[in-house]
Design goal:
This protein has 99 residues and is mainly alpha-helical. Helix content is 61%, strand content 0%. α2 (26-43) crosses α6.
């Protein structure tokens, strides 16, 4: 086997490891996300939705509507994902109808 072939095989294995064909189920991802959000909220206040959007990060429709409301920044720093219908559906259904 030539050196080129050895490196090509190694590159294929690394690429396969980076991009596995099987993905974690959506329900597992949603549950992990919920746990991480609870831990983050318990550690202290979250950044305001206005700050997050100004940094160029996207907001979901629910977060965007909260950001536009004339409410205080302390409310915008609360975790809206904890009461989001999409998160609840995502935890219970594998192919949740979330659009």
């Amino acid at each position: 086997m030539s050196e080129d072939q050895a490196f090509l095989r190694l590159a294929e294995r690394v690429d396969a490891a980076r991009h596995p064909t099987e993905r974690a189920p959506a329900r597992l991802k949603s549950r992990l996300y919920s746990v991480l959000m609870r831990q983050q909220a318990a550690a202290g206040a979250l950044r305001s939705l206005s700050v997050i959007r100004s940094e160029g990060r996207p907001l979901c429709v629910f977060e965007r509507s909260l950001e536009l409301l004339p409410i205080g920044e302390h409310v915008k720093a609360m975790n809206p994902c904890r009461v989001c219908h999409a998160r609840v559906l995502g935890e219970r259904f594998e192919a949740a109808p979330i659009f």
